[in-house]
Amino acid sequence: MYNAGQCRHGSYRHAQLGKEMSEENEGNSGKQVIARAAAVLRALENQTGGLSLAQIAKGADLPRTTVHRIVAALEAQQLVSSGAGGVKLGPAIARLAASAHTDVVAVLRPYAEALGRRTRETVDVCVYRGLHAVSVDQYCSDHELRVVSAVGTAYPIHCTAHGKALLAQMPEDALARLFGERLEARTDQTITALAQLLPHLEQVRAQGYAIDIEEHAPGVCGIGVALNTGTSERYALSLGVPALRFHAQRELLLSALLQCKAEVEAVLGVKP
User: Fold this and answer.
1) Domain 104-267: which topology?
2) Which of 17, 136, 154, 237 is the most exposed place for a label (fewest CB within 10 A)?
3) Nearest to 212 by CA among 264, 164, 270, 265
4) pLDDT digits (tens, 9 = 90+) for 231-250
């Protein structure tokens, strides 16, 4: 028997299903557009001279016609700009970057604490400040014999693990401008000549970490890495360890430190 009520109810269900499918398709389409626009913007990252549409298409792995449409839409919002040199990031990107503040120290803190608990050694987070690496956060070791200093301490950059990790990110000409020929001796182990420091920093670059074997203070060793945070500030992460414990557990400390670095950079969305 024909039932009008059932028919209307069935039609309603079909209409609702059609509406939901349409909204889902629109949502997927929107996500795809955003993903493609993001791919175009990433292709333009660090390309100060600009790229052609063909170069963007190759870098973003998108058809050139798609890139043309996306670039036109982004340019209307000042997210990219076109000129004789090609397409480059626009002024709106700079404004957005300036207003987006990533609190690196807050992001780092749980990872630094986890590193400290795992190694039972003091963890320092430092930021580059000319001739010094300045401590901005610290997790203290729970050993009775430990390396501890106050947050805000300015460590000499040429003879500490975190300092040398930061220096290794700089080109030689910048290092020559930063230092004179002679460097301050803090212990008998301090490298005191720029000519000796430069090849040492080459080794730091090659291995990806820096070691301080009683160069800054007698009885104190350290191991440090520079962090790629995607911000204008330059940060380093290090472990401060009494010399009595350092040598026996050096490889374990290094492994834990490098793992922490990878985790921090991953959560910050920075490519290794």
Assistant:
1) Beta-Lactamase (3.30.450)
2) 17
3) 164
4) 888 999 999 999 999 999 99
